[in-house]
Amino acid sequence: MEHLIIPEGYKSALGIKETEIGIKLVKDFFERELAKQLNLTRVSAPLFVKPETGLNDNLNGVERPVSFGIKEQNDAEVEIVHSLAKWKRMALKRYGFVHGEGLYTDMNAIRRDEDTDNIHSIFVDQWDWEKIILKEERNEETLKDIVRKVYAALKNTEKYIAHEYNFIEEFLPEEITFVTSQELEDAYPDCTPKEREHKIAKLKGAVFIMQIGGVLASGERHDGRAPDYDDWKLNGDIIVYYPVLDISLELSSMGIRVDEETLRKQLEISRCPERAELPFQKSLLNHELPYTIGGGIGQSRICMFFLRKAHIGEVQSSVWPEEIVDFAETHGLHLL
C-alpha cells in the first residue's frame, strides 16, 4: 500500500451519488469560466491517431501508447492519444480560427505506463486548449498573462463550489507566484524536483513553475517534456498546495508552442532530428501552422481538488489493483 495515502480521520463529505452531482457542477462551471477567460470555442477531437502523422504526444519519450489495428483498413495501426498538444495546432488552422481566438476540447487518454497512486490513474481526462498568438507575442509576458487568466478561472470555480457546499473552505491565494525551475534548484539544491515543488507550493499556495524540459545547472532536468510542442523556455506547470493530502498537486501543464527555430533546436537536443520529417513537424517547419499557446487542465484533478477528495478514483472510473480497492473501501474511500 506504499502508493496509497489515507489521511487520518478522512471521510468524504459527499456520498457517491452526491459526488457525481458535484463533479458535474465543477466541470460545467470551470469549463465556462475557462472559455470566457481565454475566448475559446469547444470542438470535437480524436481519441486515436495514426502514428505516422506525428500527432501523438510522446510525453517523456518512453511511455508506450495503446494501439490497435483497424480491420477495414487492412489492420492499419492507430494509437490512443496521450494528449492533443499537436493536433490542436493543426485544428486551429483547419477550422479557420484567427489571432486572439482559441479552441478547447474534452481529451480522454490511456497512459498504460503510469504508476498509479492517489493522484495518478492510467485514465487521463483533461481539457486540452489552444489559442492563436502572434510571433511577437511569443514571450514571457504573454505566458504570464495567460497563466493568470487560467488561475482566475480556478479561483472563481473554488469560490462557486465553496458557495454550493458549506464544508468547502477557500484556500487558493489571491495571486499565483511565478518561479523558474532553475530558481527552484538554486533555492533547494539538496532536494529532488518533486520535493522542491512541494516546498514552494506549501509556502506560496499556488505557483507556476516555468522553463521545464531543458537541462538545469546541475545537469539534471526538472521534468521531461516532448521536444516538438512546448518551447522549454516559455512553458510551465500550475501547481497548488493540497492540504487534504499534504502534497503539491499539478492542475495544469501549458506553454507557448515551438516555432520553427525552437523545434529544430529541441529535436537536436533530444537526439531525434528525424521527427522533423513527420507531417506535423514538417508543416510547422514550412511555416504552415499558426503560432500558439496552449495546455491541458486535468478534469479529475480539479474535481478531486475542489470537492476535497483523497483519491482521484473517487471522481473518475478507472482500474486499480484489487488490494488498493479493498484497502481504500475499508478506510472510507469509495473508488468509482
TrEMBL record:
<keyword id="KW-0963">Cytoplasm</keyword>
<comment type="pathway">
    <text>Amino-acid biosynthesis; L-asparagine biosynthesis; L-asparagine from L-aspartate (ammonia route): step 1/1.</text>
</comment>
<dbReference type="GO" id="GO:0004071">
    <property type="term" value="F:aspartate-ammonia ligase activity"/>
</dbReference>
<dbReference type="GO" id="GO:0005829">
    <property type="term" value="C:cytosol"/>
</dbReference>
<dbReference type="Pfam" id="PF03590">
    <property type="entry name" value="AsnA"/>
</dbReference>
<keyword id="KW-0547">Nucleotide-binding</keyword>
<dbReference type="GO" id="GO:0005524">
    <property type="term" value="F:ATP binding"/>
</dbReference>
<feature type="domain" description="Aminoacyl-transfer RNA synthetases class-II family profile">
    <location>
        <begin position="24"/>
        <end position="321"/>
    </location>
</feature>
<comment type="similarity">
    <text>Belongs to the class-II aminoacyl-tRNA synthetase family. AsnA subfamily.</text>
</comment>
<dbReference type="InterPro" id="IPR006195">
    <property type="entry name" value="aa-tRNA-synth_II"/>
</dbReference>
<dbReference type="GO" id="GO:0016740">
    <property type="term" value="F:transferase activity"/>
</dbReference>
<keyword id="KW-0436">Ligase</keyword>
<dbReference type="InterPro" id="IPR045864">
    <property type="entry name" value="aa-tRNA-synth_II/BPL/LPL"/>
</dbReference>
<keyword id="KW-0028">Amino-acid biosynthesis</keyword>
<keyword id="KW-0061">Asparagine biosynthesis</keyword>
<dbReference type="InterPro" id="IPR004618">
    <property type="entry name" value="AsnA"/>
</dbReference>
<keyword id="KW-0067">ATP-binding</keyword>
<dbReference type="GO" id="GO:0140096">
    <property type="term" value="F:catalytic activity, acting on a protein"/>
</dbReference>
<dbReference type="GO" id="GO:0070981">
    <property type="term" value="P:L-asparagine biosynthetic process"/>
</dbReference>
<protein>
    <recommendedName>
        <fullName>Aspartate--ammonia ligase</fullName>
        <ecNumber>6.3.1.1</ecNumber>
    </recommendedName>
</protein>
